[in-house]
Write a structure and sequence with these properties.
Blueprint: H1 2-8, H2 15-23, E1 27-32, H3 41-51, E2 59-60, E3 65-66, E4 69-70, E5 79-80, E6 84-89, E7 105-113, H4 122-138, E8 142-148, H5 158-163, H6 172-178, E9 182-194, E10 200-211
Parallel strand pairs: 7-8
Antiparallel strand pairs: 1-6, 2-5, 3-4, 6-7, 8-10, 9-10
């Protein structure tokens, strides 16, 4: 997980805390894996390993429980090589997400897909699975999430330039909106990043929600 967060670029320092939250039943952090029966799986895994050799370790499914639901390992995936992760959480640090399982509100957090595999529809498939699981297994009626605002990733964005971030072909905000999420809140300085000179840049965050019923 730490290696994937390093590749992602942020929150590597949060990993140890996630371990405790997961075991205490507050978050549901899931590995994203490829179907072993799919003909494209071997070459895609090789693309992933070639780009991130430090992530080449095969893991075993030792999970016993997700939230209050017992976890039954898939016999086809007792061992796997993860190419990303996504978290469906019942507790979050941002009050603006309105996360509250008792009200049917869960939040999607810490979503990552290996860079060389981001053009194969895997992110959409992971979102579909997470939304279905939230609704069917945990009776979620709403999913909320937060992401970077479009104006922070434009060609002339001082923040983007200072941090040397690429201009995305499709912004996170646009991608989520196409999937049926709508903005309900915008927050200035939702997060901070530090450039190579040590200057901290506040980031405009947008908070989105999707009704599952």
């Amino acid at each position: 997980m730490k290696q994937q967060r390093i590749a992602c670029g942020w929150k590597v320092e949060k990993v140890e805390g996630w371990r405790t939250l997961q075991r205490d039943g507050h978050v549901g952090l899931h590995w994203i894996v490829l179907d072993p029966s799919h003909p494209e799986t071997p070459p895609r895994l090789q693309m992933h390993v070639d780009r991130f050799p430090a992530q080449a370790s095969v893991l075993r499914d030792t999970c016993k429980q997700v939230f209050s639901r017992p976890h039954k390992p898939d016999p086809k995936l007792l061992s796997f090589l993860p190419i990303g992760h996504i978290s469906l959480d019942g507790v979050t640090p941002d009050a603006e997400l309105h996360t509250d399982p008792s009200q049917g509100v869960y939040s999607l957090m810490n979503f990552y897909i290996s860079d060389p595999l981001q053009s194969f529809g895997l992110g959409g498939a992971a979102m579909d699975t997470c939304e279905r699981m939230a609704k069917e297994d945990f009776n979620a009626t709403v999913i909320t999430l937060a992401t970077i605002a479009n104006e922070e990733v434009t060609a002339d964005s001082p923040r983007r330039i200072a941090l040397n971030r690429p201009i995305p072909k499709v912004t996170n905000q646009d991608w989520y909106e196409r999937r049926g999420y709508s903005i309900y809140f915008t927050k200035k300085d939702a997060w901070f990043d530090t450039d190579s000179t040590g200057k901290a840049w506040g980031t405009i965050g947008v908070f989105l929600r999707k009704n599952l019923v």
